């Protein structure tokens, strides 16, 4: 039993959706109709959540977009968290990890202070840097495994002695560290040729799959190859192509209608694969 995992799987199976809405709120890209508010980013996020809540299984806050704006960004992040529907998984895409005592502070920040259900972490510093996150048995810890960017070739796809690529070693280790149910990995949708193999090697891990939409990954492949044997256990993140629909919006209702229409389209494509 793991509260975060159970919540995500319950939502995935009842809604037949793996949709994780990426709240990558870039102040420069927030449509002009939100400018009149004292906190345009917060109102923008509220609108995105209203427009997608019937289709979403999770919301991912990429902390960089909030940290970049200092105290105001942190305030927007904190107030956005309150708006995330309780039946949806909240993910802090923070990509943290450091020596143990520092990681403990990161884990406390994301899991206790902000009460996120899950967080993304980087494996490079090894187990002692990740143990503080894995010690939370009711949360989900998503470890970067095979990321969606071209730079995954620089380290992740490099072969270790014996020929095993580094990302496969990460997968093996996370399967052990997260054996209690809180283990997850990030695998890019742009690497769908390797996705079936990765899923076979780690049947019990939760998958977070970014890279559909703006990065060109296939939605259908991400869903079909990413899910576990129960057709759950995976989330497909979509940020820019969902929250920044093309065009000018005369009012907030028009913006929400455009986002809602795209979320419905994504949901229906996912449902037909599931
Ligand atoms: O391998 C990775 C890991 C994380 N991300 C993050 O996911 C979203 C993707 O945004 P899009 O606009 O849908 O491309 C973003 O927050 C990334 O930082 C990733 O893309 N790839």
From TrEMBL:
Q: In which pathway does it act?
A: Pyrimidine metabolism; UMP biosynthesis via de novo pathway; UMP from orotate: step 2/2
- Give UniProt keywords alphabetically: Decarboxylase, Lyase, Pyrimidine biosynthesis
Question: Which Pfam family name is an example for this entry?
Answer: OMPdecase
Q: Where is the Orotidine 5'-phosphate decarboxylase domain?
A: 18-252
Annotated catalysed reactions: orotidine 5'-phosphate + H(+) = UMP + CO2
A Gene Ontology molecular function term for this protein is: orotidine-5'-phosphate decarboxylase activity
This enzyme's EC code(s): 4.1.1.23
Q: Which CDD domains match?
A: OMP_decarboxylase_like
Please tell me which top-level EC class this enzyme sits in.
lyase
GO terms (BP aspect): 'de novo' pyrimidine nucleobase biosynthetic process; 'de novo' UMP biosynthetic process
In the record, the note on similarity to other proteins reads: Belongs to the OMP decarboxylase family. Type 2 subfamily.
Which PANTHER family does the UniProt entry name for this protein?
OROTIDINE 5'-PHOSPHATE DECARBOXYLASE
The molecule here is called: Orotidine-5'-phosphate decarboxylase
Q: Please report the organism this UniProt entry assigns to the protein.
A: Chlorobium luteolum (strain DSM 273 / BCRC 81028 / 2530) (Pelodictyon luteolum)
Species lineage: Bacteria, Pseudomonadati, Chlorobiota, Chlorobiia, Chlorobiales
């Amino acid at each position: 039993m793991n509260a975060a995992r159970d919540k995500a799987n319950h939502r995935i199976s009842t809604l037949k959706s793996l949709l994780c809405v990426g709240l990558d709120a870039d102040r420069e890209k927030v449509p002009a109709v939100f400018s009149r508010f004292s906190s345009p980013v917060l109102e923008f996020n509220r609108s995105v959540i209203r427009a997608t809540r019937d289709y979403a299984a999770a919301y991912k806050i990429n902390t960089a977009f909030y940290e970049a704006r200092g105290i105001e960004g942190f305030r927007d992040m904190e107030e956005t968290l309150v708006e995330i529907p309780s039946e949806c998984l909240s993910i802090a895409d923070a990509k943290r990890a450091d020596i143990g005592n520092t990681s403990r502070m990161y884990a406390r920040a994301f899991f206790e202070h902000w009460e996120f259900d899950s967080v993304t972490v980087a494996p490079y510093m090894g187990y002692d840097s990740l143990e503080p996150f894995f010690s939370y048995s009711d949360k989900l810890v998503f470890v970067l495994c095979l990321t969606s960017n071209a730079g995954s070739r620089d380290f992740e796809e490099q072969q270790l002695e014996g020929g095993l690529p580094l990302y496969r070693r990460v997968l093996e280790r996370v399967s052990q560290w997260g054996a209690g149910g809180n283990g997850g990995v990030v695998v890019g949708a742009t690497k769908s040729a390797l996705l079936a193999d990765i899923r076979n090697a780690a049947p019990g891990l939760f998958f977070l799959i970014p890279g559909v939409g703006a990065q060109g990954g296939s939605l259908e492949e991400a869903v079909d190859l990413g899910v576990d044997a129960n057709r759950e256990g995976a989330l497909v993140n979509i940020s820019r192509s969902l929250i920044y629909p093309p065009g000018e919006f005369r009012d907030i209702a028009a913006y929400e209608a455009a986002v809602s229409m795209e979320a419905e389209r994504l949901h229906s494509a996912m449902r037909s694969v599931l």
